[in-house]
From TrEMBL:
Domain PilZ stretches: 4-104
Matches recorded under Gene3D superfamilies: predicted glycosyltransferase like domains (2.40.10.220)
GO molecular function: cyclic-di-GMP binding
Protein name: PilZ domain-containing protein
Pfam families xrefs: PilZ
Length: 118
């Protein structure tokens, strides 16, 4: 099977906060749930969560980097979803909606520098 990924991925698990609006982007109230980021790239993030989001769902995700203490908020969209091992967990491909925030690039460069030293 051919590799579909466009960007290099950093495999580092981190807790992610997901904000979503069940009635659409302008609806209230917003809901919050949590996920585990399995890997992060310049184009998006792969998440593991117990909440199902249909393809096309708009989300706001908050990533944090443990070493630098950076917090990154980014608008994103669900691109693909699949069940992960059980019916209670879902793996999702999330694509950033806008140009990647500089803080995500910084987070990735920081991680790559640490790998080079190892």
């Amino acid at each position: 099977m051919a590799e579909k990924r466009k960007d290099q991925r950093i495999r580092e698990e981190k807790k992610v906060v997901i904000e979503f609006y069940p009635g659409g982007k302008d609806s209230r109230p917003k809901n919050v749930t949590y996920a585990l980021a399995r890997d992060v790239s310049e184009g998006g993030v792969r998440l593991l969560t117990d909440r199902f989001f249909p393809v096309g769902t708009l989300l706001k995700i908050t990533l944090s980097h443990s070493q630098s203490k950076q917090i990154v908020n980014v608008a994103a969209q669900v691109k693909w979803v699949k069940n992960f091992h059980t019916s209670d967990l879902f793996e999702m491909g999330i694509e950033y909606m806008h140009e990647i925030p500089e803080s995500v690039l910084s987070m990735m460069k920081n991680h790559q520098g640490k790998e080079a030293k190892a």
